[in-house]
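Extended Data, panel c. Modelled sequence:
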Amino acid sequence: MAKIETILVPMDGSDQSFEAAEYAISLAKMMNARIIAIHAFGIPMYVPEYRGTLFLPTWYDRTRKVAEGWLEKVNVMGRRKDVDVETEVIIDVASVVDAIVTYAKKKKVDLIVMGTKGRTGLKKFLLGSVASGVVEYAHCPVLVVR
């Protein structure tokens, strides 16, 4: 069995993503691995005007801050178990699936741990659309936590 040194945990703020983070941190503790927790968000389909100015910069700032809050919670979870956690917010992606898969390959991740369904509300037969895409295209094993 290959040694697992780096575990990627894509976060979207859902309960399932935090359950996946807990699971990943427990695995990391057992395997003496490190965690990278990320949140990737795309360009909004519709950008309304906000009092005569474009809403986009405000939306990006707000979305980034919310994501940083989720990632800080994962960081705290890791510190409680003495597991190193690195975090990153990835902005302006065309595809969340592609962003996760590309990031995992670039960082030479050994395992991706993620929740089954996130915030999108889209339901598939067994997995959410993002989880399903990551399982299909990732270069490494993907553990989906229900």
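The two ends are 24 Å apart (CA to CA). This feature is highlighted in the accompanying rendering.
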